[in-house]
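Limitations

Structures in this collection are predictions, not experimental determinations, and the ligand pose is part of the prediction. Treat each record accordingly. The example that follows, with adenosine-5'-triphosphate as the small molecule, is included so readers can see exactly what is and is not provided: the inputs are given verbatim, and the output is the predicted complex.
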Amino acid sequence: MRRRRIYEGKGKVLFEGPEPGTVVQYFKDDATAFNNKKTGTITGKGVLNNRISEFIMSRLNDIGVPTHFMRRLNMREQLVREVEILPIEVVVRNVAAGSFAKRFGLEEGGRLPRSIIEYYYKSDELDDPLITEEHITAMGWAATQDLDEVMQMSLRVNDFLQGLFIGCGLTLVDFKLEFGRLWEDEEMRLVLADEISPDSCRLWDVESGERMDKDRFRRDMGGVEEAYQEVARRLGVLPEAGPLDLKGPKTVQ
Ligand SMILES: Nc1ncnc2c1ncn2[C@@H]1O[C@H](COP(=O)(O)OP(=O)(O)OP(=O)(O)O)[C@@H](O)[C@H]1O
Ligand SMILES: [Mg+2]
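Predicted complex:
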């Protein structure tokens, strides 16, 4: 049966789900960086990110952080609740890296005195500019109360993820979250949406300091596939099938 394609993004495709209010997220192997200026393929990434995000979202649901995740459907797809995505990317930082290190002229790798939350406006045309809470509330992207909730949830996610990853020998340097509005009989709830994976987190091996995330792709470091596989392996979610099977079908319906 052909499903209606709702949206094709850089890393995923969204299809209409089987029941109203649901969508299917299909995880692609496509990789982009620097807002589409660099594109490529990371073989098996979709399969691994589907598993990794499933695992993390499920554990977050377990500890009472509401998420869009319902269930994994197959190697590359998961069923999630359809939400109205807030046009904001929430970035939580524990260690200086990437644009943060650049902006403040810091060397990458310094632990921040406390976790820092940043907001970016989701706009490819504008290159996702850094914004403040004032911008968000004044532009009506989220109310002060909603933003408080987003901040509290983000810090809980950070605490949980830091513990989870340190148990796997990985330092959670920073990560990006997206939230959405879920309407249930006139009531609105904010839930965590999108994905949590090595595409959206910086993860450094505790022992060697090696990068185990999309920075390997951004910076042409090689060993990209292996890094994603290693993260999945350490989380205990590496699919049984061998690396060759990760290739899977390249085409989507
Ligand atoms: N539960 C959900 N309901 C509706 N939309 C969602 C949900 N979870 C994630 N999305 C949106 O689906 C898209 C996922 O695709 P992908 O991550 O490939 O997008 P992208 O290219 O990064 O684009 P964007 O700039 O919009 O994030 C994103 O736009 C994301 O905001
Ligand atoms: Mg995205």
